[in-house]
Amino acid sequence: MKVATAAYPIDWHDNWASYADKVTRWVHDAAENGAQMMVFPEYGAMELASLAGAEQAGDLAGSIRAVSDRVAEADALHAQLAKDTGTYILAASAPVPEGDVVVNRARFFNPAGHMDWQDKQIMTRFEREDWSIAGGGPLKVFDTRFGKIGILICYDSEFPLLARALVDAGCEAILVPSATEALAGYSRVRIGAMARALECQCVTVMASNVGEAPWCEAVDLNVGRGGVFCPPDKGFDATGVLAEGVLNQPGWTYAEVDFDQIAEVRKNGAVLNLSHWDEQLPRVSAAEIAPF
User: pTM of this prediction?
Assistant: First the structure.
């Protein structure tokens, strides 16, 4: 499977046509370069808030309303683009109401235009303390024609038990859409994605927002790049990096993901982190304080 992962600028749009043209251009560009799966970042959908005007887009609560009002239209656009290009598309996540709360939802489209989604599980301090976004659920594994795919949205990738739950359900690759405002935040997610690839002996695919959007407080500053990570083991790159873009430079990063190779390294790798995971369990409760 050839995957394309985005370093995506959040732009101001004066009208729907501007937004639709941008997303269509990005999708067709990736498809024309052979991508069979595309990964957009966390909260990239915040650019939809610009359609409601500067006052609403600049207000945290107002921006949620502005984006959620246009998510259905954005979903219809992505579904049609997935059908037109015959690709899988993980759309940029968006804050959407779910009952009495607002969740951070990444919607996933298959080549037939069918949509499912993954909600973020664990909120950052900004999401829970300032923006009132709540954890959604449940974790899902998507059985695609290439292999089984999971999604850990940004901060979720920093929690190994979430990835392990996906892998226990058969997951072979994990998509990591992210939104980080500083190099430190980007580094945390990148390290998390690389660690999950190591311990789960899988491939992780990280997408980022890049650049400034001063009109939208939620995503006013953005640092990142696209990256595709692997276990540094048999058949994979020794650095654990399959592909990586240039920091803060917009565009797609491409990589080939071989699911047979994932199965082989899980079976015959130089190390067998996935198989040996359970050996931790009787030991993690046995730590003692040793006078020294």
Answer: 0.98
User: Which pLDDT tens digits describe the chain residue by residue (292 residues)?
Assistant: 999 999 999 999 999 999 999 999 999 999 999 999 999 999 999 999 999 999 999 999 999 999 999 999 999 999 999 999 999 999 999 999 999 999 999 999 999 999 999 999 999 999 999 999 999 989 999 999 999 999 999 999 999 999 999 999 999 999 999 999 999 999 999 999 999 999 999 999 999 999 999 999 999 999 999 999 999 999 999 999 999 999 999 999 999 999 999 999 999 999 999 999 999 998 888 788 899 8
- Sequence spans of domains, the chain: 2-270
C-alpha pair distances (Å), 41 with each of 4, 97, 205, 222: 12, 19, 10, 11
Given a contact cutoff of 8 angstroms between Cβ atoms, the answer to whether 257 and 173 are in contact is yes
Homologous superfamily of domain range 2-270: Carbon-nitrogen hydrolase (3.60.110.10)
Whether the upstream peptide bond of residue 138 has omega within 30° of 0, thus cis, is: yes
